[in-house]
Design a protein that fits this description.
- With 503 residues, the protein is mostly helical.
- Helices cover 74% and strands 1% of the residues.
- It has a two-stranded antiparallel ribbon.
- Strand 1 and strand 2 (334-335) form a beta hairpin.
- It starts with a helix and ends in a 5-residue tail after the last helix.
Length: 503
Amino acid sequence: MASTTTLDAGVQPVAPSGGKTFFGHPRGLATLFMTETWERFSFYGMRALLVLYMVASTHNGGLGMKVALATAIYSVYNAMVYLLALPGGWIADRFLGARKTVALGGTIIMIGHFLLAVPFKASFFVGLVFIAAGSGLLKANISTMVGHLYDGPNDPRRDGGFTIFYMGINLGAFAAPLVIGTVGQSVNWHLGFALAGVGMALGLGQYLLGTRHLSAKSDVVGSPITPAEKSALLRKGGLWFAVAVVFYAIVGLAGYFTIDLAVWPLSIAGIVIPVVVFARFKRDKDLSAAEQSKISGYIWFFVVAAVFWMIYDQSGSTLSVFADSSTNLSVFGWHFPSSWFQSLNPLYIMALAPVFAWAWVALARKAKNPSTTMKFAIGLLMIGASFIVMMLAMGAASGGVKVSPLWLALVYLVQTVGELTLSPVGLSVTTKLAPAKYASQMMGVWFLAVTAGDCVAAVIQLGLGDATGSTWYFAIQGVAAIVAGIALVMYRKNVIKLMGDVH
């Protein structure tokens, strides 16, 4: 490809200024580390408050929504963050380059958080749109920029650099509920949202100050869009935008507009888009029989991942509501905000990720490392088990009883173990099974599993209405995940056969 030739011939990673390094890595890693830490601080801090604010009564400063609608909005919002990572990567590749796209994304996220801080309902929903769009721009490109800092995939520092970078993600996610959650729940909801905006502003500021330490590769527009393509894009995009505006304007003026009319179409779209993507892959005559077989095998992993994320991402919605309404928030007389439970997952990840990394290597030495298929099955069984525990916790909380916080601590622990067996392995198997033609697109397809899972959750929540968060709500999803995990174990030989030479 022409863009690859240009990169190799004309652009080299920027050398650290003055020979200084960041723990032995290029100084640009410090810039990206802090940017991601602050961005995750703002994202997870806002997320810890989101559903709680929507279901809080208007008397207590909230929106007074029903739990089903609030959790569905949360699910769709989370789905759009991952769905918009696809156009986020495309904008960097065709228009701006990664460096400018991340700066633009950070700016849009910051504006979105400050819009949430304005005490108006319309501003709240516009703010969510801004944060989702900005997160798509930033999320799709900042990890790519980490890779740009190193001299190719064989640079011995590369894996260590990504490990440090992902530690920043979890540090930000851990601190956010403790700080923003406390301010939002104990002082004022909108002040908490504003604090999330301040966090993103700090991250954006240090990104702009440290941008000189980043690789020149991050400025390159890999495949610049042609004038003809730009004209066609603007024409088609403008047409669909106009159709949407006219439709919602008519519905609004007629007095029939409800939040459901926005949530339902997005939920359906998030489920349909992955189906369309895989249908396009399967119809592609350029793919060999072996590549088509691998796509068929990958669909199994995709569906399993979607079921996993359908449950896992409810940590900030149905589980958050349970924490606030049905959990004893006092330990030895000391009271803490319910949003603090959102810090458990990143805490568990930081504690357990090194253990899992060591365990997989140790098992591989003994030729006992579970296959990718088995790791996915374990992930499904664990996530299903977590909702069975939630079913029991919900039963224990019947009659208005406040249950021990240890119930949720156990749920989050089981979910984290499931995440560590599925999520990193999913990233790896995606790159291994990707056809050469779609190598750069497949990571975006992996993110679509999150979109699909969250949108299925939204459909369930909207469909069940007041039953959302009930004992059998958790039971049905938990059992479904466990049955799917068992089915994957039973059919693993068929899946392995479809994977061909990938093990």
